[in-house]
Amino acid sequence: MARFSTRSLSSGPAGRGTRVAGKKVLVLILAGGKGERLGVLTQERAKPALTFGGTYRLIDFALSNCMHSGLPDVWVLEEYQLHTLNDHLTNGRPWDLDRTYGGLEVLPPSPDTLTGALEDAGNADALHANRHLIRSYAPDVVVVLSADHVYTLDYAEVIRHHLKVGAAVTMVTTDLPGGEDASRFGNVQVTKGGRVKRFAYKPDEPLGGPITTEVFVYDAPALLRTLDDLRATTPAGQGLGDFGHALIPSFVKAKSAHAYALDGYWLDVGLPGAYFRAHQDLLAGRSVRLDTPEWPVLSSSIPRMPARVAQGARVEDSLVSYGCHVQGRVIRSVLSPGVTVEAGAVVEDAVILRDATIRAGAHVRRAIVDEEAVIAARVDGGPDGLAVIGARAHIAAPVKGDTQVEPGRRWRKGSRERTADE
């Protein structure tokens, strides 16, 4: 298991720690959110532990980027459904983060953590709640990451840029991905020199420029000082909210915020539609390459037998993970480990998670099927919709359109579950 700690963390003898351009660097991965917008997919798991691309988890992108960037001192801040993420993190070994000094540290909620105690608490509160640990580590630079985005990035390059321009915070930005709504993100406008001159957090009227990717590089003293100042001026009983509410605007107002443009694929998969679209991009070759020799995405997984494709099966434009048994048809879909598609079953434009079973005669189309679900009827999100089936659900009657079936539910004729808008 990964190490749990609420102590004063250090980087080893004499304060030794990771350095980039002579500066001591600490990485914080925020992995505590409930991910409520993903509906039934995160009802029983932490969002960063959600499977992606068959054999990976969402947090693997941030952890792999840290390893390849040469940043081994990584703290994962947790809160919701801790066990589902800790089972995957093990001791950090898949990402070469199992170190005698430093390495991967898992920080569970502490009595001082504001997140969850206040209705408006958010990721800025998570940083404030761990400020004493950050001060004890005494970094020069703090890199703060989210754990639910699909991308690859050399954080060391961002740090070097951050130090070169002398910013208090550098936010990694990207052009708005196709099909996405700018009002879901932080919007920025940047000067020719790269300074952020205007910032709007999830605005009703988008600014029309790039958006933030929730990759932030902070000058550590400036971050801690600003968190303390915000806490001192925030009314009792209120939280600091998310980065975009007060923390980032403080730096923008002080003209000390800069942008670093990400050159490559990036997608926030915090909605079922975005999660589904990310898999479509993966199948179409528009996403990041997961196994590039220079920068592979690394993961922790239980070994299984190779996939078996039986005589008479048909697989087209799909990813089939180890441990799968395919006898039916699979078209433009992603099958996670252990999935069974029986003879006479059809899986089309779908994402099927671990150990789910598609029975003979069932047809799954435009759907996400969670772990250990059994599908024995037609599941069809429709031409523009998306059906989402919770873990261990048993589908014995048709499911149509934007419908979410709760985990463990037995779906029979006459059953009704909430739609995506409910």
UniProtKB/TrEMBL annotation:
Q: Which GO terms describe its molecular function?
A: glucose-1-phosphate adenylyltransferase activity
> Which keywords fit this entry according to its UniProt record?
Glycogen biosynthesis, Nucleotidyltransferase, Transferase
For the region Disordered, what residue ranges are annotated? 399-422
State whether keyword Transferase applies: yes
Q: Where is the Nucleotidyl transferase domain?
A: 28-283
One record GO biological process: glycogen biosynthetic process
Keyword flag Cell membrane: no
User: What Gene3D superfamilies does its record include?
Assistant: Hexapeptide repeat proteins, Spore Coat Polysaccharide Biosynthesis Protein SpsA, Chain A
- Pfam families given in the database record: Hexapep_GlmU (PF24894), NTP_transferase (PF00483)
EC numbers, comma separated: 2.7.7.27
Identify the residues that the record assigns to the Glucose-1-phosphate adenylyltransferase/Bifunctional protein GlmU-like C-terminal hexapeptide domain, covering every copy.
312-382
Which family does the record claim for this protein? Belongs to the bacterial/plant glucose-1-phosphate adenylyltransferase family.
What PANTHER family does the record point to?
A: GLUCOSE-1-PHOSPHATE ADENYLYLTRANSFERASE (PTHR43523:SF2), GLUCOSE-1-PHOSPHATE ADENYLYLTRANSFERASE-RELATED (PTHR43523)
**What is the name of the protein in this document?**
Glucose-1-phosphate adenylyltransferase
Q: Which organism is it from?
A: Deinococcus soli (ex Cha et al. 2016)
